[in-house]
Specification:
The protein has about 400 residues and is of the alpha/beta class. It is globular. The chain has 16 helices and 15 strands. The two termini are about 20 Å apart.
């Protein structure tokens, strides 16, 4: 049986997705070659024995020169998987690749919708300055919209992180079904299911920077306020952990609002800077469940995006990785093969009611994460990737 030769390219910033992909592609029948920068590879922090060829670009060498030096090696691969392309569109659009190309899409609206439909200006001093800067540097200076479109017309296949996003793109943009594939970012190998044994002490975590652009933390503050009478009457203690930097003015307001409610029944743990990995891991292990207050509308540079529809929330991958059930904003569409890990809430009152229900009935402990996340087990994810690569290769050889 001929091995599938796959090149993975990453010169932007998705180090964790690159690391996960390398674990998934570590299987018989697939040869892997990685092209990336020294900086990104340090972030990947690969701890295992290499099974792949690795080509690292040093800071002193230009991307054009690096690719020119290694183009022959790159073209020895059957499939070239672009883990991210978020810059250097001109370079990528002019690169002569002979294998089948697959581009991971992290922001579908940006990449498939015309600028006139995706740019939604915000008339605040910060956004006027930010958008003007982007237009000057990228839109006009680098002509990025033109070369991105040129690149998209050349790419053979597109990979999306979830089936909901794949369906949304094929239904709303001119992307043929035969060019759209679902290749999730995350997987799990050994389930992490430790939770505290004291039913009177509950620990809930919210992962991510305390930033109003992506998450609605006010709904969490209001829900905690609604919970306080219940916590006092039941003599239970709730610890809320915000696992992300809370160093913005918005973050400070949220923290202050939560601090005002601290008592024998409620405590808040937060971080003004980077969360040390050891502390992050400890808090995750001790968490009973997560809250995911994701806003649906968000932005990528100057473009409007929609969580769950055109891009995935990183918190979804956290649920997969850590095997923790979550309460999530009801507006977020969930893939069928993962939704048993979630319960949706509509507003702060509903969120408070759901938290009480989960505490009282210990519903979250009844969720069998191994069954609910079976599609994301490493061996199943390896099968998904292998089958997809085989289909892509077969289609390439018949055209």
């Amino acid at each position: 049986m001929t091995k599938i030769k796959v090149a993975i390219i990453e010169f932007d910033y998705h180090a964790e997705v690159l690391r996960n992909t390398l674990h998934i592609l570590r299987q018989p029948g697939i040869d892997v070659t990685v092209f990336t920068s020294i900086k990104i590879w340090e972030q990947v922090n690969w701890q295992e024995q290499d099974y792949f060829q690795l080509y690292l670009k040093e800071d002193e060498i230009s991307l054009n020169k690096f690719l020119g030096l290694h183009l022959k090696t790159l073209n020895q691969n059957h499939i070239v998987l672009f883990n991210t392309i978020a810059s250097n569109y001109k370079t990528w659009s002019e690169l002569k690749i002979t294998g089948a190309t697959v581009l991971r899409i992290h922001n579908a609206n940006t990449y498939f919708n015309p600028l006139i439909k995706t740019f939604k200006p915000k008339l605040t001093p910060f956004y006027v300055w930010k958008d003007s800067s982007h237009f000057a540097r990228k839109t006009i200076g680098e002509f990025d919209w033109y070369y991105r479109k040129k690149l998209m017309n050349q790419v053979d296949h597109f990979a999306f992180p979830g089936s909901q996003i794949t369906s949304y793109v094929t239904n709303n943009f001119a992307v043929p079904l035969e060019k759209a594939w679902t290749l999730p970012f995350g997987y799990w190998n050994k389930p992490k299911t430790y939770r505290g044994n004291n039913p009177d002490k509950i620990k809930i975590s919210v992962i991510g920077k305390v930033d109003q652009r992506n998450r609605d933390y006010k709904v969490v503050v209001d829900a905690i306020s609604n919970l306080m009478p219940y916590l006092r009457e039941s003599n239970k203690h709730l610890e809320l952990v915000l696992l992300g930097k809370a160093n913005t003015s918005y973050g400070v307001r949220i923290i202050n609002g939560l601090k005002e409610m601290t008592s024998n029944n409620f405590s808040i743990t937060y971080f003004s800077g980077f969360v040390p990995q050891s502390e992050f891991d400890q808090h995750i292990a001790e968490s009973d469940f997560f809250i995911i207050p994701t806003r649906i509308k968000t932005r990528y540079t100057i473009y409007e995006e929609f969580y769950g529809y055109t891009k995935i929330s990183g918190s979804i991958n956290d649920v997969i990785k850590y095997h923790k059930p979550a309460l999530i904003n009801e507006s977020y569409p969930l893939d069928r093969d993962i939704k048993d890990m979630f319960v949706s809430y509509s507003n702060s009152t509903d969120l408070a009611d759901k938290i009480i229900l989960w505490i009282e009935s210990e519903t979250y402990k009844q969720i069998d994460s191994i069954v609910a996340l079976s599609s994301y087990r490493l061996d199943q994810m390896q099968k998904t990737y292998r089958n997809t690569l085989n289909h892509i290769l077969q289609r390439q050889t018949t055209h």
